[in-house]
Amino acid sequence: MRPLKRIIHFRLPEKAVFWLVLAAVVLMLVPMLLVARYNVPCADDYHFGAPTHAAWQATHSLAAVVKAAGEKVAERYANWQGTYSAMFLMALQPAVFGNGFYALVPFLTLGMLAAGTCFFCLSLFTKLLGASRWQALVLALVWLGIDTQLLPSAVQGFYWYNGAIFYTFFFGVQLFYFGLLARYVAARHAARRRSAAFLTGLCALGLFLGGGNLVTAFGTLLVLVCVLCLLAIMKSRQWRALLLPLAFLLAGFLVSVCAPGNSVRQQSESGEPLPAPLAVLRAIQEAVLQFDKNLTLPILLALVFLLPVLWNAAANAHLSFRWPLLFFVFTFGLYAAQFCPTWYALKQAGPDRLLDIIFYSAFFWMAVNLFYFLGWLQRRLWAENGAVPQGRYTIGFVAVTAALLAVSCFSMRDMLNFTSIQAMNALRTGQAQQYHAEFEARVEILEDTAQPDAVLQPYSVRPRVLYFDDATSDAADWRNGAIAYYYGKRSVVVLPP
Fold this sequence. Notes:
Blueprint: H1 2-8, E1 11-12, H2 14-34, H3 44-59, H4 62-79, H5 84-90, H6 105-128, H7 133-150, H8 154-159, H9 161-186, H10 192-210, H11 214-233, H12 238-241, H13 243-257, H14 260-269, H15 276-294, H16 297-305, H17 307-316, H18 324-337, H19 340-346, H20 352-381, E2 393-394, H21 395-410, H22 419-428, H23 431-446, E3 453-456, H24 478-487, E4 491-494
Parallel strand pairs: 3-4
Antiparallel strand pairs: 1-2
Helix pairs in contact: 2-7, 2-22, 3-4, 3-24, 4-5, 4-14, 5-9, 6-7, 6-9, 7-17, 7-20, 9-10, 9-11, 9-20, 10-13, 11-13, 15-18, 15-19, 16-21, 17-20, 18-20
C-alpha cells in the first residue's frame, strides 16, 4: 500500500500538468480538424462571396478580389449592415479561390480562438498579475477545451465560415486586444517606444473590432472604459494615453452603428427597437438563464481542476481582494451587457453563433471570480500568519478529477453536445464523406454552363458538425438566389426530400 500511496501523493510540477492538459486538448482537436476536409459552404457564404468569386474566376488577381470585397462592403453598408471589417472578411471566404480551400475554415477560427486565449491568459496572469507561465497556460488550455467542446453550436462556431468568422474569429481578436491592454498596463515603467507600440496595436485592433459584430465591439468598449476609469481612480497617468485607443475603438463602433443599412435591416427583421431600459432588463434576465444553462457538471469539474493553479496565482498576485461580492456583481454586469445589443435591436438573445462567444466568456468569468474569491480567502486566513501554503497537483488529484470529468461527460443526456464526438461520429458513420460527395455532385451541375436553371438533389445526410443550412425548393428563396448569384445561374432549386 505504501508504494501506491506514494504514487497517489506524488507531486506533479505545473509544467508537467501543462503538458498533460495540452495532450488532452490536442486529442480533442484532432477529430475536429480531420472532419474539416469535408466542410462545404452554404447560405451567406455564397451571397458575400459571389463578387469576389467572380473577380477571381475572371482575373486570378488578389488585387481584383480585394477590390470586389471592398465594393461588397460599400453595398451592404448602405443597404443592410454596418459591420465593415466583418463584411470584408465575409467576402473573402476560402471557397472563393476553390471549394477545396473551404476545409481551412476551422483552422482559421480555432486557430484564432486558441492563439487569442493563450496570449490573453499569458498577458493578464503572467505580465499583470504575477502568475507563472505554466499557471497561465494551464488555465488557457482548460478554457480552450471547454470552449471547443461544449459551445452551443460547433458548426456555427467553427465550420460555417460566415458565422464563425463573424463571431468566434472576432472573439479571438478581442482576446488579443485585451492581452495588449494588460501588457500596456503592466509595462507602466517601460520605455516610451514600447508603450507606443502597445498603444499603436490597440488603435489598429480597435478600428478592426469596431467594425466587427456589435456584441464584441460593445463589450470591448465597456472593458476599455472600465480600465481607463480604474487607472484614473488609481491616479495612474496611463489613463490619458488610453484615450487615443478609446477614440479609435469608439470611432469604428460609431461608423458601424450609424450605417444607413442598419435601419433598413431593423425595419425588415424586427421593426422598432426595444426601449433601452427594457433591453437592459431583458439582457440581465437572459444572462441569468444562460448562466444557469451553462453551469454544467463538466464545467464545475473543470473549475475544480483549476483550483491549485488559481490558488497559487492568487497567492502571488499583488491585489488586496477586498470586495468579492462587488467584484461578482461587476463581472456579471459585463457578462450580461453582451446580451444588450441583440435584445435592443432584435428583441431576442440572438442566434447560436452569438451565444457561442457569450459562452466562451462565461467560463472565463467563472474562473476569474473563483480566482478572486480564493485571493480574498487567503488574505483573510493568512494575513497575519505568514506565507500562503502552496496549492499542489498530485497524481491522485489529477487522476480523480480527470476520471470524474470523463464520467460526467459520458453520462450527459446528449453525447453529441461534444464537438469531438460529433466529428468522430460523422467520420465513423461515413456521413461526412457522403455529405461532401453529394456537394461535389451539386457543383458539377452548378458549374455546367449548359444548365442555366440548376436542379439539385437534397442532401441525404446532414452531419451535425458540418451541416448548417441549405437552399430550398423555392427558387425565390434568398438562399437559392445567393447560390444562383455565385454560379451565374438563372435559377437554382433543391428538390424536396
